[in-house]
Amino acid sequence: MKCSFCSNEIPRGTGMxxxxxxxxxxxxxxxxxxxxxxxxxxxGWEVKWTETYRKAKSVSAATxxxxxxxxxxxxxxxxxxxxxxxxxxxxxxxxxKQDKQPQAKQ
Length: 106
Ligand SMILES: [Zn+2]
Hints:
Elements: E1 16-19, E2 25-28, H1 31-39, H2 51-56, H3 61-80, H4 84-105
Antiparallel strand pairs: 1-2
Bound molecules: zinc ion.
Zinc ion is lined by residues 3, 5-6, 8, 28-30, 33.
């Protein structure tokens, strides 16, 4: 049986079945999927992490995994680089202080 939201396979003995007043039946693999559809009213094909989205946009799992790795690498690079902007700001502050001191003496 597949999840109504993310269309992942639901293992036997897990997940939940939800029956609406209009007799529509939804199967959810997790509370995340249930909240996404019923509480937040998201559509499965509009949420990027779902299998439904990948099928709708014809994105293969391999390309999705590759893009995830790229994002991770970019985040790690950003963490490793110390922000050079702070140094620049400190320099300008020191320059301002040096400028102010001679004016105060006069
Ligand atoms: Zn699901």
